[in-house]
TrEMBL record:
Domain named SusD-like N-terminal: residues: 32-230
Organism: Bacteroides muris (ex Fokt et al. 2023)
Main localization of the protein described in the UniProt heading: membrane
Intracellular or extracellular location(s): Cell outer membrane
SUPFAM superfamilies per UniProt: TPR-like
Family that this chain belongs to: Belongs to the SusD family.
Limits of the RagB/SusD domain: 310-663
Keywords, ordered alphabetically: Cell outer membrane, Membrane, Signal
GO CC field: cell outer membrane
Position of the signal peptide: 1-22
InterPro entries: SusD-like_N (IPR033985), SusD_RagB_dom (IPR012944), TPR-like_helical_dom_sf (IPR011990)
Protein name (database record): RagB/SusD family nutrient uptake outer membrane protein
PROSITE patterns: PROKAR_LIPOPROTEIN
């Protein structure tokens, strides 16, 4: 038994996995006593591997409606991504709300396992099973995991019960009541998480290699501290922009923090970030491209190889079709129809027009302003977003569309040709190439008689040529606007865009669920740069180095092929954060921590799509691009975020006796 555990864990380590469930499938740990596991170094490492699987990383297998490590079949719901709950993207069938339900995370069983593991590491060290150095390192890893777990709690619930020891003796002495722990304040909970990061960093190594490659380092602890401290600072600064009332507020279990608390957290973010920036040896991946094309290629490649100098902490996967509880389906769910190898559900990740418009072009005048996709000759891109675009027989809608002074393009790609390299590396835009195939995303055509067809692949003829509303005759020959809003069959983009970031373009791809093995990058240096810049510009006490913060901001732009230098402002930092970190799970929590969700998603907001159309009214067919209301939002009456959802409801209050959060 001991030999099996050791050999299986070693295999997992050699394969480069941050955690491994395979040995659990072969020899469940509940059939082996803790004392047996503690008799060998391999047994202790098996327990450690199990702790890694509990880290609540919001990776490819995280579904906001279901939880972490979700690999089971769940219809269209299994394709859900955190970006779909924001203005970054949506699911092609339109069926994802802004995320009020199924968002719970209450991992006190996992926290107990971490606490027991810490206790057992001490026992193994005292018995001579593991060295002092190994024990210290494993304890640091346990602190890291516990910090991550409590971060997952505090960002959802505010203050929670803080349990940092095994409670068995307390129970023996005083019964069930002795182990009941009340909620701490939100302020104290944030402080606890940051202290766990500090404790982790104190005993973790600077670097890993070989079979330890995916174990955490000191710099992963600093990166987590940077992230947590910025989150805490933002909540401390902005929590009262979304006022709540009730016992939890009165007791400061949610909110209740001051500007002084905010600045203290900003300072911790600044110090952790700066230490990592200056001492970790990490650097941006390919920071000085010669051309914009090279910049786009480099940025795309960054997410397909996690063993590069920018990555701080990542998670690897084995093929889940041959390894139980492994793999993911990101590529299968999101590959576009024209290049689909046979996946059942595909084309599901649809970026919104809002994020595409946010990227710059290469005017590079030092202003750093977004450059919206040009669709009108009068330059007034905010003047219209066509409502009820699907109502082709509605005279008002037809007149609205026909009155737009469209710019007429020669091909689908022309409007995107000079956009930021990060856009072209993150988003599949109409007319771009994917794996050598021109991606046709077209939503309709305008006929000579000023009528139009949209979201249906009708055909028409002009001068002896047949034209199709969706760009080609067969369903496998185009990638947009087919079966819009039709649930299981909505495998074509409904917004005008597909996702490229993290997609293994150019690699051989299986159609099978859970066969994807692209690593998930949880922490990279670019995020730390942006955390530092935001903390410097946001704190009110003058903490941090403004020149360094501005350098961090401009280094990211230089990596994207920009040649100008922009100033450090809150607006520039937040915009760069959105374009650099698009689709990496940051936008949801950024709107949450800055208390922007209820203003960004108010009054039944309807997100926007871009519909390329073939205009047949002139002598030569031309492409025009219609800014329209996203069909999935419009048919559902829009999306609204309520203030009470900045804090989730505390589960099981009838039995645990905890104070409930407002509105739950």
């Amino acid at each position: 038994m001991k030999k099996n555990i050791l050999s299986i864990f070693s295999l997992c380590a050699l394969m480069g996995l941050s955690g491994c469930n395979a040995f659990l499938e072969l020899e469940p740990l509940d059939k082996v006593s803790p004392d047996q596991l503690l008799e060998t170094e391999g047994g202790v490492k098996a327990l450690l591997a199990n702790i890694y699987t509990m880290i609540p990383m919001e990776d490819f297998n995280y579904r906001p409606n279901a939880g972490f490590n979700q690999r089971g079949y769940d219809g269209v719901n299994e394709t859900t991504n955190l970006a779909f709950l924001t203005d970054e993207a949506t699911r092609s069938d339109g069926g994802v709300d802004i995320g009020y339900e199924g968002f719970n995370y209450w991992p006190y069983g996992d926290i107990r396992q971490v606490n027991i593991f810490m206790q057992n590491v001490e026992k193994a060290k005292e018995a001579g099973t593991i060295s002092v150095a190994d024990a210290d390192r494993m304890t640091g890893e346990a602190h890291f995991a516990r910090a991550y777990m409590y971060y997952g709690l505090v960002k959802r619930y505010g203050g929670v019960p803080l349990i940092d020891k095994v409670q068995d003796d307390d129970y023996a002495d005083g019964g069930p009541g002795a182990v009941a722990v009340p909620r701490s304040t939100e302020l104290d909970t944030w402080k606890f998480v940051l202290n766990e990061c500090t404790l982790a960093a104190a005993t973790l190594p600077d670097a890993t290699s070989g079979s330890d490659l995916y174990r955490v380092t000191k710099w992963a602890a600093y990166a987590l501290k940077s992230r947590v401290a910025l989150h805490a600072a933002s909540v401390a600064k902005y929590w009262n922009l979304a006022p709540l009332a009730g016992e939890a507020v009165t007791q400061k279990l949610v909110g209740g923090m001051t500007s002084a608390d905010a600045d203290a957290f900003y300072k911790e973010c600044i110090e952790a970030s700066k230490s990592l920036i200056e001492n970790s040896g990490k650097s941006l991946y390919k920071p000085a491209p010669a051309t914009v094309k090279e910049a786009a290629s480099n940025f795309q490649a960054l997410f397909l190889n996690d063993q590069n100098e920018e990555v701080i902490f990542s998670k690897a996967y084995l093929n889940g079709t041959t390894n139980t509880n492994q793999g993911h389906s990101y590529a299968q769910f999101n590959i576009l129809p024209q290049v689909n190898p046979g996946a059942l559900k595909y084309g599901r990740f649809n970026p919104m027009l809002e994020i595409v418009d946010l990227f710059e072009d290469y005017t590079d005048d030092g202003m750093g302003k977004s450059a919206k996709i040009v669709t009108r000759t009068d330059g007034n891109e905010d003047a219209y977003n066509i409502a009820n675009f699907h109502s082709m027989n509605n005279a008002s809608v037809v007149n609205n569309l026909m009155s737009v002074p469209f710019v007429k393009y020669n091909d689908l790609y022309e409007p995107f040709a000079n956009k930021d390299a990060r856009l072209l590396a993150s988003v599949v835009v109409p007319g771009s190439s994917y794996a050598g195939t021109e991606i046709i995303i077209q939503g309709g055509f305008i006929k000579d008689n000023n009528s139009y067809v949209a979201y249906s692949n009708e055909s028409t003829q002009k001068n002896g040529t047949t034209y199709y509303a969706l760009g080609a005759e067969g369903e496998t020959m185009f990638s947009g606007f087919n079966n819009v809003n039709s649930g299981e069959d909505a495998n074509w983009t409904a917004t005008g865009f597909g996702v490229r970031k993290y997609m293994p373009e150019g690699e051989s791809m299986s159609p099978d669920r859970l066969s994807s093995t692209t690593s998930y990058i949880d922490m990279r240096l670019a995020e730390v740069y942006l955390n530092y810049a935001e903390a410097v510009v946001e704190n009110g006490s003058g903490f941090g180095d403004k020149e360094l913060a501005e350098n961090c901001l401009n280094a990211l732009r230089r990596r994207a092929g920009h040649t100008d230098r922009i100033s450090l402002t809150l607006e520039s930092v937040l915009k760069e954060r959105r374009v650099e970190m698009a689709f990496e799970g940051k936008r949801f929590w950024d709107m949450n921590r800055r208390r922007e969700f209820h203003t960004e998603f108010s009054n039944n907001r309807i997100r926007k799509a871009l519909v390329p159309m073939l205009d047949l009214r002139g002598a030569e067919p031309k492409y025009v691009f219609a800014r329209v209301n996203y069909f999935g939002d419009e048919t559902r009456g829009g999306r609204t975020f309520q203030n009470i959802n900045y804090y989730r409801g505390i589960p099981n209050i009838a039995t645990n006796g905890l104070v409930q959060n407002p509105g739950h």
